[in-house]
Amino acid sequence: MSQVKAKENFKSIPPKRRSVNEKSFLQRLWKQIDLQLMVWVGVLLIFVFSYIPMYGVITGFMDYSIFTGARIFENPWVGFKHFESFFNAPQFDTIMRNTLVISLLKFLIGFPAPIILALMLNEVRRRFFKRTIQTITYLPYFMSWVIVGSMVMSLLSTDNGSINIFLQTLGIIDEPINFLSERNYFWGILVTTNVWKDIGFNSIIYLAAIAGVNPSLYEAAEMDGASKFKQMYLITIPTIMPIIIIFMILQMGSLLNAGFEDILILAQNPSLRPVSDVIDTYVYRIGILNQRYDYGVAVGLFKAVVSIILLTSANYLARRTGNSLW
Amino acid sequence: MKKRKMLLLMVTAVLIVATALSGCSKSTNDPNSGSTKTSPTPGTTTNAEEGESSDIWEFGSSELSFSAFQLYNWQDFPATMDDNPFWKYLKENKKLNIKSVLGSSNNLQLMATMMANDNLPDLIHGDRNHPDFLKLYKEGKLVALDDYMEKYPNLKKWLSSEAADLLRSPDGKLYQFPNYYTTIPNGAAGYVVNKKIYKELGSPSLETMDDLYAYLVKVKEKYGNEIVPFEPDQAANANGIGLIYTGHKENSYYRSLSSGTIAVVDDANNKLSSLYTDPAFRESQKFVSKLYREKLISQDMFTAVDRAGIQERVLTGRVAIYAASSPLTWAMQGDTELSAKDPDAGYFVTWPIHKAGLDKNKIFTGSWDKLGWNVNVITTAAEEPEKIFAWLDWMTGPEGMATQYFGPEGGNWNGFDENDRPIFTDTYNKAEVAKLETDNVPVIIVGNTTYIDPIKMDYEMAKPEAERSWLLTNQEAVTWRTTNDATALATNLTPQAGTDLADIDVNVREIFAQALSASATAKSDADVDKILDQAQEDSLAVGYGELLEWRTEQWLKNKELLGE
């Protein structure tokens, strides 16, 4: 009722009076021309380098011949043929299952791990010890997967691999275990390696957020007799929650990125494919190695669409907590 | 305030101009610009200079310049001609200027880019079954060589006409100049045995699969984890374990396990049939999985794709038996290093191991191919295709061959005898010749095996036994004798990319790669059967039957051309 009334009141204001304090659109634009120009450079850059190349995705709906190069419209349209053949591919079920399982495992274990590390480091009082731990945990992030992969392989090797030697010395096993050929171990090895590689670097952002918590909150809590654990639970975590949620939403967008280099390098044994083959390794093998570019594009596009849906729904859910990305 | 605004405006203006320029710069790579020439269709490109140059161009008589590219990710041509002894000689003495197109381990991607940009190199060297060659042919980007072959003497003389027919593309023309083509077996596959371990275990008989098993058990008992009892090379490509398969059936083909074939010859019905239903394949996979279960075979065989580990173990003598489609190079190095420290150590090549009851003379560890494996093609981008052909033809003839393998005339050889063989001089330097051959490997793109192998062999056999080369002795005694001719099974069996058959082929290969590894490392014999049954079922579901029918057709065509 009041809304209607307000509307009526607004209408009663003469048009001339309404624009007394407002300048025309062009005037406003000119006033902030420096800001506008800066923004449009960014928009133009994104358009040129991120949107124009996107026209390539239409090859997913064509029978693409590489000899046509950039003249892609010379190729015949085939509609959803490549999508259909992906859905009907014998590997489809395996690939989808692995993609989801591996990315969920990486999410469930890899996402909280750096937060826990940050909380633990936050409690460390000795500066030197804290810095040392941080440096050591950052380091693996800067190594390429090729190096990490060969380190893991030589650690797990049956021929003089340290882990096998260690387990044998302790008498836990009699014969070396071929870790990288056993399907049961693969997901564990993959997720562990990923956590080990990224945990230090990913914890930086949470450490920074924790550093921003008002120290007086802790002092007050201490006065009230709250234990360290209670302080962490009641002050630190709620304060950094917005950051955690934003990173969680971003992570959801790349949920289908189950991995590529790590799997390609660690799952060399073809008999691991039933547990290791994910969308990206499949696209690489079939699309790039077998040069079926149109098919590869179609599968990649399918993945992108699913990712957008996941990102949007995660954001929708997060909006209810008041911490959404947009 | 005003000043600051002006500065900001200027900075942003510069940024905008830079952006616009970088955006525009893309157009310089646009394949549309300047590429208005139409691609000739296959068959119309044969001889660009027809009529105007009916005379033979003699290689070296005038300048020749062209670009060359290797279609292998692991190999490039030398960056400059000075980097290689043979090319350096050609540059300094034959007025040749080759510009290498370097892929730096991204050759296959670079090839795709060059095809998309219509910016092809003049000469491409690579595996003759590489799908890119089929694509280039289909698109009319290759120069037919038939007319040149008639004009120039060497290829016509040395490449048998049936082999040439086999190389012909569907339109009946020859577009590929083969490498290491031959009319005599040049197989290299075999089992290499560690001499010292063999002696220490009492030199037992190593003829049958049962002997092999008993021997490996003894190795494991005596040396534990120090020594890998059986080291198969590149198991994921069926390389080392393929030898075990060929030992389970008389006259079987190593080529059957190649991912480009995946079929066995069914002589009774004159067709190619499913590998998974072949009892010999099942039996050999059971044997391999038994070795695997009992830790008698390298446990990393499918995991460690990197061959450095295998090489290291062979060179340091940490394997008892090493099996591979081409084991001799590393085994020779290992033999040299090990025997230098201990005269009793080293390696020897054993006669193919076979299943008890089979005729050992009908077991062929490997296959050879009349066409070799690599080819050279000249693309329509070449300005003077005939001259490039003339150069290839010169290289495949006596002068070219002798220069590639023994250095320039006047050094290790001088002139030719009545059989066109180089006459070796008194100053023949064995070490220099060995080094030359190794150094020239990346540029020996036409290797006339029929011509060069007997020359090398005769020279070696003329020497006292103790001085003969380890490699040639073992080749002569074993590996050349124990490989069979699989030319018909190795040619034109790859479906053209983009067709339904090619999709089937991809899926069948995938299933095979998994089944091979899973069955070789299975927990029991029953599991092996189960895995192979499943693979058979899955393969049939994706169209294996259709692929086998097409392959049979192609194979029969090949046999007809070869007069088999």
Gyration radius over CA of chain A: 27 Å
End-to-end Cα distance of chain A: 31 Å
Low-confidence stretches of chain A: none
The helix content of chain B is 40-55%
The multimeric state of the shown protein is heterodimer
Organism (chain B): Candidatus Pristimantibacillus lignocellulolyticus
Keywords (chain B): Signal
InterPro entries (chain B): Bact_solute-bd_prot1 (IPR050490)
Protein name (chain B): Extracellular solute-binding protein
Task: Give a topology summary.
The complex is a heterodimer of chains A (326) and B (564).
Chain A: H1 2-12, H2 15-18, H3 25-31, H4 33-51, H5 81-87, H6 92-110, H7 112-123, H8 127-138, H9 145-156, H10 162-169, H11 183-211, H12 215-223, H13 228-253, H14 261-266, H15 273-276, H16 279-289, H17 293-319
Chain B: H1 2-24, E1 64-70, H2 85-93, E2 96-101, H3 107-116, E3 123-127, H4 131-138, H5 146-151, H6 153-158, H7 161-167, E4 177-178, E5 190-194, H8 195-200, H9 209-223, E6 228-232, H10 239-246, E7 264-266, E8 271-273, H11 279-293, H12 308-315, E9 319-324, H13 328-341, E10 347-350, E11 366-368, E12 374-378, H14 385-396, H15 398-406, E13 413-416, E14 422-424, H16 430-440, H17 449-461, H18 470-479, E15 483-485, H19 500-520, H20 525-542, H21 544-562
Parallel strand pairs in B: 1-2, 1-3, 6-9, 11-15
Antiparallel strand pairs in B: 3-12, 4-12, 5-9, 5-10, 7-8, 13-14
